[in-house]
Structure formats: structure tokens, C-alpha cells
Batch of 3 targets.
Target 1
Amino acid sequence: MNALSVENLCVKINNRHLIENITFNVEEGRIVALIGPNGAGKTTLIKAVLGLIPYSPGTVSFFGQPFRNVNSHFKVGYVPQRLEFDRTFPLTVSELIGFTVPPVYSFSFFKRDKKHINELLEIVGAQDLMDRSIGGLSGGELQRVMIAKAIVNEPKILFLDEPASGVDIEGQERFYDLVKRLNKEKGLTVILISHDLNIVYRFADNVLCINRRLICSGSPANTLTDDVIKNVYGEMMGAYIHSCHEHD
Amino acid sequence: MNTISEFLAYPFIQRAFVASLIVGVLCPFVGNFVVLRRMSFFSDAISHSAFAGIAVGALLGIDLSVSSVVVAILISMLIAVLSEKTSLSHDTVIGIAFSGSIASGMLVMGMLKGYRADIFTYLFGDILAITNTDLLLLFVIGVLCISALLFFSKPFLQITFNRDLAQVEGINVRLFEYLLFFIIAIVVTVSLKIIGIILVTSLLVVPAAAAKNLALSMRRLFALSCIFGLVSGITGLMLSVYLNTPSGPTIVLVSVGIFFLTMLKRERWN
């Protein structure tokens, strides 16, 4: 079954096309990487799919149902690119995750379900961050917390917009290992934007190359050829296949 | 010199004391959202739009509290709609609403005949002139607004933290933003008689900003802001009675003093 179907999606702002006529499907339980140069419209595509910016024409459906008509927003998790927030915002990790823990409407915000929140933080290996202020977290720690927040309501599909940007190499490895584990253990469909083709080769089942339009799609090994990479990123780029593969 | 208990024997001081307790909790509680969302200019615009409402009320001969609330709510909704539907920045829309309200208020005031002392009560506030009806209204609105903010605290705080995340999680961002604007407009206008149009934003912003200097969690922010609001309200009222100074400015100056103390503490941490 397709977890996500996008048909003829166009996003136009001030008479300028940011996305033109993009059509693709994502099978349930797959990890799909969106790649493309800066300004190619990757974040715009994810935001349009999530209903954060308007699109016209086009249709988006999750698990066969139009997104806007489904009362299942909680089936979708989202970790935005470089979360912008006031670093002096007085908020602990448990409070941030607590925003998403049901019930959404109650007088009990200040009484948090710490056991549930601790379980979520354990999944992402961040249980020691429970009472830390979010302003004091490193990039890698914050991304783990954001993943924990994104999976609170057991989403079927997770969108990650350059989730490991600004995170050191060790942090990136831990992060993508976690994403892979969630994908395997919980059958989570993952759609991620990445500029790191090495990560894409190692972790993604499928690749969508985008430069305002869909340039190509398929498995990383078959799709990310030297010609395609030069076509997408320019003549200065080429493919270098690392020896270690997760999919072997 | 009279003791506090002697002062508290006077009914108008008792009413002022209770009013300072209520606004001491209500304004900072709502003010936390104003500070976290950087909306102090918005609350300033709302308090000044109430000035236009008061002038119109005086001209038409209707209750000034009612006319100020109605105009403040209308202006807050206008700001929300224009910010959403036009390409103008939120800041610009607020600036236009602010200037337009003040100008309209002054224009209408010019049409009034004779001296209207009641209008100046709203302009500068007079906690000692609070009636039992004012107190009851303040209490009911305070309970309703704090209950709404508590019940919807998760969506309100989620939107304050990050709008996109809130929307993806299924929160009706537009509805809650309008509701927050509505609550701020109501709280600002019911506090006018106590603290005055000119200073009401201070009581919303200053205790909350002082609490933000010390708080590392949302729980502490709300608790500290209410404590600072209460201390400012009661200490300011007592000082104003002892020193025979206007109550509103004295309350605000106490809260500003608390803010600087917390700022020093924060700087020492840093």
C-alpha cells in the first residue's frame, strides 16, 4: 500500500513556480530520500505535502485518503529543518514532548505523564535529557528530542527535513541508526531530505531527485549515477560509492 | 503612621487589595503568552484602541467598560485578519491600528462637551475607585480567561513554540491565535480601570519578563510570573497608600524593580 501519493503537485508563490507538476508514490515501510541542490524545492515540497503551504493544482493522499479530509493528523510526524526558536524559551524537554501527549485539551498540562515521556526518550536514547532546558541542548540532542516528540502518537509516516544538519559526524551516525531502527521495528515510513549522498546510499530504500520537477526516482544504486548527479547538482559533482552498505 | 490593618479597615482599600490580587495573577498569567510570542506592541495597541472605545462610549452615552471592551475586541480581530490575509507584516498592521485608534479617540474626545473625570480614570487608572461591580466583573473574567488558557495550554504553548509543528499535529492554529488575541483584548480592557491605558501593558509584560529571566521551565515561568505580579500589586498598593502616590505607577515601578533584580541574577548566572 502507498503510504503517500502525490499527484501533479504545483506550488506557486508570486507567480513563480517553486514546484512544478510533481508526481510520486511512497510505499509503506520504506525510507525515501529527497535530494536536490539548494533552492530545488525540497522543503517546499514537504511543507506542501503537510499542508503548511498552499498548493494548486495537485492532490496529496496518505494511505489512500486525502490529507485534508482525514482526521488522522497524528499519523504524521515531522521534524523540521533547523528548528528556529528563542533559546531563552523556558521549556524543558519533558514539557516540549508533553505538548503532544494526549489529551491535548485538559487542565493537566502541568501534570505530565513522565513515565510515557521517559519511554519515548529511551527509544531515542535521550532519557537523561528529560528535565533539561531545550535552550541548552546541542544540535544532536535537540534532533533526538524532536524525533521523540514526532513519534509520541505512533505516526505511520515521519518527515525529516535535513534532520542532521549542524550535527557532528558521530551524532549523524547515531541519528540515522535510530531512524533505521524505528523503520525496522515499528514499520515507520520515513521521508527525509538530505544533502549527504553517503547517508542516502546507506539508509534510503528509494531516492527522489528534485529540482523544481521530479528529475528521477528509484533505488540509490540505480538512480544515483554519475550522469544523474551531474544533472542534478552540476558538473563539479560525481558519485563516490562508499564500501559499507546497510542494504547488503 | 497608620498600620496596614488600619488601612484595611476601609472598604475602598479592601476592594483595592482584592483587585490588586486578581490583576496581580491575571495580567502576568496572560502576559507570559505576550512575552513568549513577543506581542507587547500588540497589547499596547489593544489598550490604546480601548481609548477610542471609551471616547465613543462617552459620546454615545453608553457604559465605558462595555464600549472599551467591544472596540478593543474589534481592533484585535482586525489586526489578526489583516496580518493573516494581507502581505503586511504583523508589526506594520499593529502600528496602523495603534495610530488609527489613538487618532480616532482624540477626534471623538474633541467632540465631547465639558470635563469628563471618568475618562481620565481609564487613562491613568484608579484602583481606589474600584466598585464591587468592577471587582465581580474582574473576578469572573479572570477565572474564565485563566481557565481557558489552562485548558488549552498545550495548543497555545505548542503554537507559541513552533506554528508549523502545531499545525502538523492537527491543532487549528488560526482558531487558537484568534482566541488568544480575544483573551488578551478582554484582559487588557478589564484591567484598564485599575492600572490605566498607559501602563496596563507593563503589568502584562514586566512580571512575565522578570519570571523569564529566572525560569528554565514553563511551570516555573507561570509560577514566578504570578508571584511577581502578586508581590508588585500588593507592595505597590501599600506603598502608594503610605506615600500618597498614584497606585498604578507605584505598582508598575515595583514590578520594574523586581525585573531589574531578576536581570542581575540572570547576568550573574551567565
Target 2
Amino acid sequence: MRYSLGFVLALSLAGLQFLAILFVVSTSYISSERAMLEHARGLLGDARLTAVEHTNGFLEPAREAAELSSRMIEAGIVDANDPTALETFLFEHLQTETQLSGIFYGDAAGNFTYVMRSDGPGPYRTKFIANDPDNRVIELLWREEDGTVAAREFDPEDTFDPRERRWYVDAAAARASVWTDPYIFFSSQQPGITVAAPVLSAGNRVSGVVGVDIEIADISTFLSQLSIGEQGLAVILNENADVIAHPNFADIADQAADGTVDFVNVHEISDPVTRAAFAGFDQTADLSDEVVQSGFEYAGEAYLTLLGPMTGTSLPWIISVFVPENDFIQGIKDNRRRNIWIAALISLLSAIAGVTLAELILRPVRAFAVRTSLVSQGEVSAHEPLPGTYQELRDANQTLISEIAKRRELDARNQDLNRELSHATRVNMMGQMATGLAHELSQPLTAITQNVDTAISLAQQDPDNPTELLRVLSELDEQAHQGGDIIRSLRGFVRKDTNTPARFALPDLIAQTCRLMRHEATEHDVTIASHVGDLPEVLGNRVGIAQVLTNLLRNAIEAMSSADSERREVTISAQQDGEYVRVSVADTGPGIASDLVLFKQFQTSKPDGLGLGLSISRTIAEANGGRLWYKTDGADGTTFFFTVPIDGAQT
Amino acid sequence: MTNALARTDDQDPTVFLIDDDAKVRATLSRALSKRGFSVRVFEDAAHFLRAYDPAAPGCLVLDYGLPELNGLELQTLLSDKQINIPIIFISGHGGVRESVQAMKSGAIDFLEKPFRQHILIDCINNAFEVDRQARAADDTRHMTLQKFDRLTTREREIAQFMIANPSNTASKEIGRELNISPRTVDHHRARILEKMGIHSVAELIDLSLSVPDVAGTVRQK
């Protein structure tokens, strides 16, 4: 199938456009996506650092407070054995460090002083435990901002012993400040953490431990204020994979059946994204000092994750920041979709432009094609002015015109020859038939008239004078002569003088005749070859000579065809022979039977032939001043020769 | 003018018919025979040439379309052999070109088959007359030459002078010319007339006109 030029042009323009735009879009998408993801990771890193610093900054005052108090007690500036002085010191400390929720001191004897913020009856509450083995006193004291006592209470049931507490044990063991695991403060039911600093006395003995409580709900609040993309989250876990800080603070408290409250494990948190983020989290394996980048998928969305330790503190916490990729690359994705639409649109426009362009380019071509077809049908002359068109087409048109003219001329000449040939053949055939018939009939008619004459002579000599017989005989004579007259008039009628000699080129005529006979030859698988060199012009009846050639060719073709010859070739050659050109027509047929008298009318070897062809041909050849004869080589075929006189005027 | 010196036989003229068609030969010869003609038939030129004696008077009825040697070719051949038998062509082809050629070459007529019998007979009679005249002229020439041969050299000289100068045949003139006496001229003249079988010089001149050979023959001697 062939496509039209317009279609091809439009398709290729549109296709090229689409491919080009698609290529640009996809490469820019890939590179910008990579850049954006890199940027997102940077943001995550920044967010993590911010969170770490904030957390550190939030917790640091607690540690400093604990260590300052510890050093002051060690230095004796504050007398740890005087509960009232200690309380005053702790109270003042708590008042200045607003983010601390409580500060306390427990000594090796089990005495305990604890100042904390309270919801009432006063804003501060102090708990004193005087651990006298004989008289254990536990006193609760609420104070106003100015230190005045708002309420006082005793709680003899309290069995609290600071030395059993984790913060005391750890700090005493470490002989340095330690952080406890975060836990839900018993008193405030708020998540918190305690930093404890040991107080060393002479001999490096632990005489007590200062502890500072700090609520860490603020860290969650801070995390919730941290803006990481649109939906990015930062989460802090402890070493047990409990969530200790989460932007959604309400999620992290887990109330057990017995009413105790604890941090929720990250695998059980109600926020599904956080759960998904740590789905594959193995705390032993993943806890390292390095920051790890990774990703996960939730609800069909890809997330970027950054997981790392709380650097800058001794807290064994893990901070993780994660954000949906789409927060960063959604725009790019949208852009890509938009770009594809734009590409499609541009392609469509390109296609339309291509079609239009092709139409513009093609219009002269099509006009030319239409014109060419009109010319070929003969409805328009090839010499009509060409519509505005391209130089190439103009050149093609010139070639076409000359080709058409040549072909027309050739066709016309062939047709002329054909028409003349068939006319001449008819005329000659009729003439030859009439002549032959006239000859054949004239003999018996002559015999009749002679016999009638004899009969008349006899009758005249009859003494009975048979007048009636004489009349019959003379009528018979008359009728026989009427027959003769009819034959003569018929002969006179067809015997037109077709022989008007003219000069002509024999090679042209041979080529033309070969063309005329080619169809007939091909039909019988016969090839016609001609070897004709330069020859002088001959003088004769052109159509007559063509008829001779045609007859000889046809005889050759039919002879080879009816004998089923294996080789079927006719070779025409022509050469000068004195004052004549001698033409030979050689076939590879079966030769001519010796009992056949050629050139005699009504003698033929063809089942449906009249036996006139060769007779006519010889008559024509002789009428043109030449001769016609043949030579048969038995099985090797037959060659017919004829001569045509050379035009004397030119030599 | 039967004469002992004449070469012509007294036999009847014969119609020599050549036609390759046996039926035509048979019927035509029979019809002509019935009309009183003596007819001899031949199927082709070769047979005719073998049998024909040019001395026999008659004419040739010749079919144009003979095999091998055709009518025109036979005519040419006979002409080349100086056999002047009159020829009537009969033809089944009736070509104008052939008939013109035949007539140019001296044929009596060119008849297309089938022809009217009376026309053929007219032609034959005509041909016979032509033949007869030709043979007679031939005979006259022959005799005149024979007589001429009998003259003496002087007689031939005088006869030649008279033929050459028909307006000046007086004995005196001739004698002066030939350096002899007028009487001798008269004597010779009488002998010439006697030997030639004529009665006047005028007859001698007439004879020399119909037999042109005489003057030439005389001159060369």
C-alpha cells in the first residue's frame, strides 16, 4: 500500500514532535525528580538536625540544673541535710527554670525533698520524706508563687524510697549525670524524663542524687510545629521502640488495663503512617550511630525516611523523619502530565501543520498529476501551459511531453501501417482470390464455349437444319460468355492499382512490422530477432512490402507453432545485394514438404489457410520490381528471401 | 505468284495451340477443326519448340499462363530466334500489363478466356494473312536477291547507279558517269531488265524499295 505524501508528512511531523517533546519531558522529569528527591533528603536532614538541636536545647537546662544543684550540694553551698534550706534552693531553682516540672534530692539515707509544679491548691508542691527508721514523716506542702504555704498535708502511707528509684541507682552507679528512660510522670500523668546527677562526698562516696524532672510533651509540640514538606513527620523513639515524641501527642500514651499509663510501642501506634514507617524496624540492627536514608510505601504513596541517633546527647534515642515523596515531586508529576498533554497538543498542531504544509506542497503536484492523467487520456494537449509548479515537475513535464509525442507518433505510424496493411491485405486477397477464381473458372468456361462452338458447327452441317438446337446452342454460348463477363468485371473491380512506388527506409519498416507482429509471436512463444544494418533507401510500395514481411513472418510463426518446434525463432536480416536490398526471413520450423507447390494459388499446408499468402507475396514482390524465393534446410527450417530495388536516384 | 524459286510450301496454314489445360486444348482444337482449321496442340512451350518447323505456315494460339516458360517469355524467345510466327495470346488472367507487353512485342491480339469464337477466328484468319504476307515478302526478297546475283559486275554497277539516282536514268548520263558509251548502257539495261524479269527501270527502283537489301548488297560488291 502506498500512502499519500500528505499523510506521510503529517505523520512524520507529528511523530517527530511527539517523540522530541516526550524525550525532553522525560529527561527533565527524571533529572528534576532526582534533584527534588535530593532536596527532600536535605530537608529531612535539616528537619532531623533541628529536631535534635531543639530536643537537646530543651533537655539541656534540666541536665544543667541537676548538675548545678549537685555541685552546689557537694560544695556545701546548700546544706543537703537541712530540708528547709534544700527546699528553698530547689523551689527557687524550679521557679527560674520554667520548663522543668520538678526538682528533687534523695540522699543515701532515704531522705527525699521534692519540689514540683502543681495544679493546686498552690502552683508548687513540696514533698518531704524524712526517713527516720523510727519516725518516718512524709509531708506535702503547697506553696504560692511568693512561697507562702497554701496547704499542708501528711501522707504516712507513702512508702516511697528514693534509693530504690532507677534514677538514683543509675546515677550512683555511673557517678555521672544520667538520663532515665522517659516515663509517664505519676503525679502529672504527663510523659517526662528525669536527669539525675550524683552528689559525691569525701571518699568519692555517693551521698545523694539530685534529680530534675522535665515533661517532654513539649518536644511533641515542637515536632508538630516542625514543617517538613506538607505531610512530613518527625518521630522520636526510645531504645525500646516506644514512641516518646510524636507530632500527634495524644497518640503516644497507652493506657493499660490496670490504669497505668505507658508510652505506646511504635508498632502499635494509632498513626498508620508511623506504623508503616517502622514496619521493618529492628531496633537492635538499626540502632547505629549513622544516619540512614531509606524509604517505604504506604497506601500507594512512596515515603522518604531518615533514621538516626540523637546526636549531641547521651540519650539513646532514635529520631526518624519521613515525608511522602509526592510532597516534593507531586508538582513535577503534575508538570509531567501537563507536559504530555502539551506534547500531544503540539503534535496535533504539528500534524495539522504537516497536513496543511503537505497540502500546500502537494497542490501543484496533484494538479500536475491530474493534468498528466488528462494528457494521457488525450483530453488535454500536452502543450497546454503548465499550472504554477516546481522546476522538477516542469522538467518531468517536458520529458513526459516529448515521450507522449514520441509514443503518439509511433502509435499513429503503427496504426497507419496496420490499417494500410489490413486494407492492402484485403484488397490483395480479394484481387488474388478473384484472379485465381477467374483463372480457374475461365478454363472450364473456355471449354464450354469451345464445345458449344463445336456443337453449333455440327448442327449447322445437319441437313435437318435443327434451328431450335442452334438457338439453344447460341444461347448457351451467350450464357457462358456472360459468366466470363462477370468474372472479368469482378477482376476489374478489385484490381486497383495499389502500387505507387515511393522511397522509404527498409529498416524502419522492418522494425515497425516486427512490432506489429510481436503480439502474435509472443502468443506462439516465438522470438523475432532482426539484424539490419545501414541500408540505402529503397523504392517500392511501402505497404506492399510490409505485407510481404507480415505474410512471411506469419507463415514462419504458424509453421513453428503447428509443428510444435522446440526452438522457435524467426530471424530477419537485410543486406544490400547489387541494386537491390535482399531481405531474408529465416525460421527454425520443420521445413517445407517437397510435394507442396508453393506460390500456387489455393495450395496450402495450413489446415485453415486459403493458400494465397505466398502467391500474393510473390505477386507484390514482383510488382515492386523484386523477386521472392525460398530455401528449405529440412529440419533446420526455411528461409524466404525477397528483394526490393534500391532507389536509383540516390546512388 | 507461284514460282520455282519460291521457298514457301503450298501446305495449308496450321493453328499451333499451346495451353496447359487439357480440356481447353481438346475442346478448342476440336472446335477449330470443325471450323476447318488444321490444328496442332502442345501442352507447353518446350513441346512446341521441339516439334515446330519454322517453315510451316500458320499462327500460334498461346496461353499466357504456361508453367515454366510463360507466354511472354516464349514470344521473346521466338523473336530472338527470328521466328516470326504470328501469335494470338489467350489468357485466364487478363492482366493489362501483360497484354500491353504482348501487343508491343507484336502479338496479333490478347484474348481473355472465355473469348468469342468469331473473334478468335477473325484473329486466326488475320494471323494467317499476316503470316502469308510475311512469307510472301520473304519469298520476293529471296527471289530478287537470287536474280540480282545473276547480274554481271557491270550490270550490277549500272543497276545500282539507276537505283541510287532514280531521276537520272538516261543512257547518256549513265555512260558519262561510268565512262562507257550510251549504247553499251542501253544493252546492259536491256540485259538487267531481262534478268530481273521486269519491264522498266521504274520497276527496278520499286523492287529495290521493297527489298532494301538489294542496294546494300550491290554497293558492297
Target 3
Amino acid sequence: MNSEITGVILTFIITLVIAFPLGKYIAKVFHGERTITDFLNPVERFIYRICGIDPHKEMNWKQHMAAMLSINLVWLIYAFFILLFQSHLPLNPDGNPDMTPDLAFNTAISFLVNCNLQHYSGETGVTYLSQLIVITFLQFVSAATGVAAVAVLFRAFAEKTTEKLGNFFVFFTKTITRILLPLSIIMAIILAFNGTPASFDGKDSIITLQGDSVQVSRGPAAGMIAIKHLGTNGGGWFGANSAHPLENPNYFTNVVEIVAQVMLPMALIFAFGFFIRRKKLGYVIFGVMTAGMLTLMIPNMISEMSGNPLLHHLGLKDVTAMEGKEVRLGVPASAYWQVMTTIISTGSVNSMHDSSMPLSGAMQMLGMMTNCFYGGKGVGLLNYFIFLIIAVFISGLMVGRTPEFMGRKVEAREMKIAAIIALFHPFLILVGTALSAYFATHHPQLAWSVQPANWFNNPSNHGFSEMLYEYTSSSANNGSGFEGLADNNIFWNITTGIVMILGRFIPIIGPVAIAGILAKKKYIPESAGTLQTDTTTFGIMTYAVIMIVAALAFFPALTLGPIAEYFQSY
Amino acid sequence: MKKYIWPSVKLSIFMILVLAVLYPSLIAAISKAAPGQGKGKTISVNGKVVGYENIGQKFTDDKYFNGRPSAVDYNAAGSAGSNKAASNPDYQQLVQDRIDTFLIHNPGINKEDIPAELVTASGSGLDPDISPAAAMIQVKRVAAARHLSENKVITLVSDHIRGPWLGIAGPAKVNVLKLNIALDTLK
């Protein structure tokens, strides 16, 4: 057991050691300073030229958002139609069928919005072509969209008073050429050399040692698995995601994959501090997020490592919680992944969350409900920014000063946006869960393809958790699931599709709008009376706001699910 | 928004070519140099492929070391966990049945000594490994079924234990397929 704890601590240290210099590098890339990847300059100029983009044309926040929505609309339509007709297209060695319209709707949105909720299984639900030109493609560009959006925030606070916040297409392109693609190539090669398939061969048929006939699904998976983590996407090549022994062959690849998904969200926080030349603010934000991570990580670890109460009741001495977990990874590395993947919105899994212990399930859901401890690619910091603005406002009221952030007054308009965004996430989750719970309890025998009574893989409170988790994961754009839920049917495909798309774009547009509005305001130099936002005190204040606003809103729902289950199990 | 649509379309086409065509082709080409040429590492016995190193197989025979329960019956055409919660009564019965089955096949073993992983399903349904303890507890049965001395089998298991990563991080494990292949050659 000791070597497993060492593994987890080592993993976190490796992440931090890579994230810090990476943050410096990202700040330089967006500043346009000299970096080791400058040899790509001509490539980028070529891209801008053939695509008719003027890289020197700066946009205000509204133009940024218009550009973002335009390109996302193109991707949505494109992805939907490819998935709908995939069986008629080439590169389908396993002969997988077209998606149904509702599944294609759900899947196209899911990958567009960086959520990667999968209501299909990779081995049977998509073709190799779809895996590449839809899934892998969207995993790159949705991550780059998030980073491009947060770059607007960077620019808004880097200068005194400005409307010019850079060019969306330039931020987007540079994120791919300078950050995501180079890192993905390195990581994909590491995976391929550790046993992850990368060739285009279809399923293999073999006779096992004992004489059974089985098939083995394969495919060009390594490249997709790399960006799935680096882009905090999380959608797996295989159904079992990173629990699959080809998707995550050994402990080393497990470390690589979990480091890859956490390092960029972390690096972006440092990058923010470097970019606006207030390193201390970056460190304070990092500190609050780490405190938040530990608040969820420690109970989750304890709950997983203290074992499965059922095995104890059945009279076993070894009660290790191995249901849904893999021997080569073990419990601590699985528990560490459970929390990291939910707080940073990746949603890839190396163990089945549905089979984790009740309180671990609560921590995983809280990770997605707060959704800003490190957070997803770009959007984590944007979510955090909302809470920061609310903390500024409340602190200002408490000490009787005009709320100010970085030399700009925070006024009614910004506060309204922040309040709406902060409440929107609980709204989507709780309304969705209430709706599904209504059908499950009042109309269990509805003549749908899957009757609501048959949605659940587990009865009672855990069944409620399966619904709550599904909407939480959709709204947080996380993509993991309590996968026992029978979710590939019209009700779940449509409702989670709508929740995912709203849960993506509203929480991006809101903070970017606030940043844009603040950037335009008159800059007030700091004085002795200014509220300091880069202090520990203010950090604690922000932490409290996140816990009160984001976590407590969900307490009643969590009580009906994992908390009730906990008291029944022990 | 209209003025952004056309650049968006062109940029998308370019990115599809780079990210979804060139990038995976590059990785596929490089992986030709990897063990298994990027098709997955296979294991052969007498020139015949009997399995993939990383994909677990179903072993129910008493003369083989058994792997973990699987929600997909070890058919790697798909992959999945059971997604059962500990609070689920059906699941509780299932685990009880697995314990009973294990005790029938392994006489002389105390119930309380059964390792948890041998009565719980893995995350992928394809877990290729078991822990050293889970291998050792089956030694008695395997040795009896093959009329071998227990010491010989214990030595074989010990030889197949793979320690933690770098010797310091993660669990120790035994690859069930490799162990069973070696077992077949034991006299």
C-alpha cells in the first residue's frame, strides 16, 4: 500500500514541476515573446493567409464571442452529419452502424463543448473515421476554444484601459500549433511504445489459451488518447476509457495520462499571473484551487482506501474496494484520478465511478458542481473568475468600499452577469435531475424505448445519484458518468445535449463579457484604500464564496443521493 | 457573425487535415517501430498467437490461475465494468455467490482469506493482472490439479511478480496469461 501512496504524491509533484515552466511558456506564447517554438511562425502565417484571417486585427469581447460561436456552429453541423452517416463513409473495418439522430445530436454536442459524455461505446458506436475526423478533431479544437476564451481574460487585465483584446483566431491557432499538437505528438508516442494501439487494423480474432474464441478491438487510438487528456476532454477510444488495458497499459502510462490532464489547467493559472505581471495573484489563485482540491481529495482517498463495507459484512479480511478498478493501477491511483478528473472537467476514468464508495461519489459530484478547482481547459479559470468577482463584491460591501478588481470598479451590470452565471450551473443540474426524477417516480412505465423504471443499474438512493451525476457531468462539461444509467435513449440524449450546450457557452460568454466590460472602464490606480485581491485573506474569502454558493446549493440533492446511501451502507 | 463564418470554414478544413489526417498517420507510422508495430503486443506459443499481453483472458479451469470476474466475460470486442454499487442487494448476492464458488474450487482456504479482487469485477472487464496474494492463494489448487509440488508453483509465481513502477510507485502485480503459459511448460 505504501508504494501506492508514494505513487500518488509523486504524480502530483511531477505535475507541478511541469506546470510551472509550462505556464511561463504559455504566457510568452500569448504575449508574442520569443519561445523555442518560433520556428512555427511561418506555418501560422501560412494558415492565416489561406484562411483569410488578419492576425493583426484586434477584436473587442463581443467580436471574440461572435467568432467563437461562428466556428463552433460550423463544427456542430459538420460533426452531426458525419456521425449520422458514418457507416457509409470509409475506414470502418468493424462495420459499425450509423448513429441514431438523437445519439448523433448528443455526441456532436458532447465533443463540441469539451464534455465528452459518451452514450455510445467506442468499440461499437463509432467508426475509425468518426473517431479521427469528428472525435479527435473536436477534442483538439474544443480545448483550443477554451484557451482562446481565457486568453481574452488575460488580455483584459494585462492593460490599463482597452477595448482591443487580441484576435480569437490567432489565440485559437497558436493554442493548437504551440501547445496542444506538440505535446500530443510526444504523448501519443509514449503511449504507442507502451502498448496502446496506433495502427489502422480492425478487430483481431484469437483463440485463447483455454480455448475460447474472442475478439480484440484495436485501432489508431494512441493519438486520440493523448489529446483526450491534454485537452481535458476525456472521451475514451474504448468503452472502458482509461481503465481499458490498451488505453492505459501500465502504471507509468497512468501517471503520464493523469499528469497530462492536470498540468495544462494548472499551467494556465500560472500563465495568468505571468501574463498580467501579477505573479502573486496567480499563486493565490493556485493556492485556493489546491485547497479546494484537497478538500475533495482527502475525504475521497479515505473513503476509497477504507474499503468496501459489503466485503466486510460478508466476512472477508481483505476489503479493498476493487469493484470497477484495475489491479495494475490500484485503489489510491484510482481515487486520485477520480477527484482530478472531476475537478478539471476531463471526465476520463480509470475506474468505474458508479462502483466507487458513496462518499467518493459525493466528492466527485462536488468536484463538478464547483467546477473551478484548476478546472477545464480555459473554462476552469473563467468559472473561478466569476466567484472571484462575487468575492470582490461581498468583501467590498463588508468593509464599506466600492468593489474594485485590478483597478476597475465592479458595478451592477457585471454583478448581475456574475450572479446569473453562478446560479445557472445549479439551475441546469437541479432542474434536469428533478425532471428525470419526476418521470422515474410518476411515469415509470411510459412507453419509451427504455422505460424510466429501467433506467437504473442500481436501486434506491444510488439510482438517484446516477441521474444527479449525469446532469452534473453534463452541465460541468465533464463527461464522466455513473455509467450504469441507461442513457442512450431519446430522453437522456436530448436533455443532456441541451444541458451540455447551455452549460458550455453561457459560462464562457458571461466571464468574458465581464472581463471585456471591466477592461473598457477607466483605470483607477491602486491606493491605500484599494481592496487587495492577491492576499491570503482574500484567497480564503474566495474559497468561502465558492463553498457557500456552489457547494451548498447542492447539499439537499447530495443528501438524497450519496449521503443517504452512506448512512445505509455503514 | 456572418463575416466569421467563411474564415471559420477554411480554418476548420485546414485543422481537420492536420489534426485528424496528418497527426494520426504520423503516430501510426512512428508506432511501426514500437513493440507489436502499433497493433497491440501479442503473445505466441509454438508460433501461434494465443493472446494479447495487456488483455486479460477467461480462465475457469482449476489447473490454471484464474483472473478476476469480468462484466464482459473477457471478450475484448467490448469493454465495461459492472457499474454495481455496494448498496445494491443483487450485487451483494452476486459477490456472496462468487465467494461460495471460490471456496468450492479451493478447498482448505478460509473464507476470510479470499482477496477482494477475486470476487469483484474489474473496471474494463479485461484486467490482465491479479495481485501476488491473489496468485498465491490459488497455488494449492493449481498444484493439486496438475500433480505438481506446491513449492515449484510458488517459485513460478514469484518469478512472475512485477514490482511497483521504478520500484517505488504503484502496486505489484502478476500477469495471469503469462503465468499460465509458463505453467503449461512446467514439468
